[in-house]
Amino acid sequence: MKKSGESVGSEALTLRPATSSDSAFLLALRNDPIVRANSFQKGEVRQEDHERWLSGVLADPARHLYILETGDGPAGQVRIDVAPSGEAEISYSIAGTFRGRGYGNQSIALIEQEVRQNHPEVRMLTAEVIPGNAPSCRVFEKNGYILTDKTQAALTFRKAL
């Protein structure tokens, strides 16, 4: 099931729900050195640990994992974790060959569209960013998120829907 996409240049980007067949792409993305440097968990993930994690995410009704696609295939992932409070935390990453093209901004726009259409219980979106991850900070700020908390460990951005 493809979601309607938004154009970046001549490419239409779409979000689709992740499946177990996306495992290899998601593991490679997670273990990308830049993704690891900007993650709270910096260590390389072993395949068996990744498979266990992915199975858990796909089975959890409060977690929603999507693949960002271009005409050339998968370009990234976006995940939301929905809490009973009506808040959902966003996590995203873009594959190396697709960075610097505005896909982070488009990912956030697409996940917001998904949340508005399919998760009306969500009233607040949040994101935690590693201090020093300027590209992600710019993405959230450009998309209307407000920096609401700043610690040595994380910057928290929020946006009411």
Features:
32% helix; 161 residues; 8-stranded mixed beta sheet; globular; alpha+beta; Aminopeptidase
Polypeptide structure, described:
With 161 residues, the protein is an alpha+beta fold. It has a single domain (6-160), classed as 3-Layer(aba) Sandwich (Aminopeptidase), CATH 3.40.630. It has helices at residues 23-30, 33-37, 47-59, 103-118, 134-142; strands at 6-8, 11-17, 63-70, 73-82, 87-94, 124-129, 146-150, 155-160. It has an eight-stranded mixed sheet, with helices on both faces. The protein is globular.
Unreliable stretches, pLDDT < 50, 5 or more residues?
6-10
CATH class call: Alpha Beta
Discrete helix count: 5
Strand fraction equals: 25-35%
How confident is the prediction overall: mean pLDDT?
92
Determine the CATH superfamily. Gcn5-related N-acetyltransferase (GNAT)
CATH architecture: 3-Layer(aba) Sandwich
Determine the CATH topology: Aminopeptidase
Number of domains: 1
Give the strand order of the largest sheet, numbering strands 1, 2, ... along the chain.
1-2-3-4-5-6-8-7
Give a nutshell description of this structure.
The protein is an alpha+beta fold and 161 residues long. It has helices at residues 23-30, 33-37, 47-59, 103-118, 134-142; strands at 6-8, 11-17, 63-70, 73-82, 87-94, 124-129, 146-150, 155-160.
